Amino acid sequence: MAERGVGAGESGRFLGRCAADRAERSPMMFKTMILAAVALAWAHPAFADMTAHYVIDGDQSIMTMEIAANGDVRARFGSDASYFLTRAGQSYYVKAGPDGPLVMRQEDIAAVMLEQLAAEPNLPSPDPHAKDVRLVARGAVSIRGRKGVAYMVNDKHARGPDDPPFLVVSDDPALTPLAVAVRTQFSASLGPIRILYGDAGGWDDMVALFARGAPLLFLGMELGRIDPAHLPASRFVLPASPLSREAVRRDFTARR
């Protein structure tokens, strides 16, 4: 089995730093980038209900996606009570408010995120080596009993071939919904990432690799249990009407 907790070693220096810096500087924005775009992916599903669990540090759940056969999806990060919801092809973020649940459209969240990033006075300087970062295949591995191909960061600062993989991708057809979800996630999140860190070939490589299959390991997370149990329709009902974009902007500004 490949080593766990990847992305923080020398070979994953640039891509791992991007994810870690983003999470440390703004946990809410990091969760939004990871989960909001995940929810957008399920426009044309052809699978039964499933719940996928990504884990870190052994078996600690970090990301859970409930996917209905009709394409609706409910995604949660860690133990948060808040969640992302895709219903009839439209994606929302749901969180607790002072007078009940607050619902925000994902497109409004993305627009406000880009506004705030563009106005951030202390953005980190783009890594001058970012464009040199690439992901290259390093052979077959097994992650929690699932087989996939390992990929390593291979720029001029990469170390030896024995470094743990940065990414592992499986072409198992049963995992196709996950591949679609994560590919859409990264495509949608590249805008904020480019503002923060400039162009990085490794991010584009990840999007392309997710067209081949689902990630068994990425950003330090491993695909754990997949539950095929039926999901009740009530899991995918909007609990309130969506806020306006201006209300979303006020909410984000208040939490900065």
Summed up, the helix count is 6
Shape: globular
The proportion of residues forming helix, as a percent range, comes to: 25-40%
Q: Characterize the biggest β-sheet.
A: 11 strands, antiparallel
> How much beta, percentage-wise?
25-35%
Number of strand segments: 11
Order of helices and strands: HHEEEEEEHEEEHHEEH
Q: What is the average per-residue confidence, as pLDDT, rounded to a whole number?
A: 76
The span between the termini is 41 Å
Strand order of the largest sheet: 6-5-4-3-2-1-11-10-9-8-7
Rounded to an integer, what's the Rg over CA atoms? 18 Å
Structural class: alpha+beta
Low-confidence segments, given as residue ranges, are: 1-25, 37-45
List its salient traits.
single chain, alpha+beta, 11 strands
Please give a structural write-up.
- The protein is α+β, with helices and mostly antiparallel strands and 256 residues long.
- It is 32% helix and 28% strand.
- It is built from six helices and eleven strands.
- The chain has an eleven-stranded antiparallel β-sheet.
- A hairpin with a 5-residue loop joins strand 2 (60-67) and strand 3 (73-77).
- Helix 2 packs antiparallel against helix 3, helix 3 (106-118) runs parallel beside helix 4 (176-197) and helix 3 (106-118) crosses helix 6.
- The longest helix has 22 residues, at 176-197.
- It is globular.
- Residues 1-25 and 37-45 have low confidence and may be disordered.
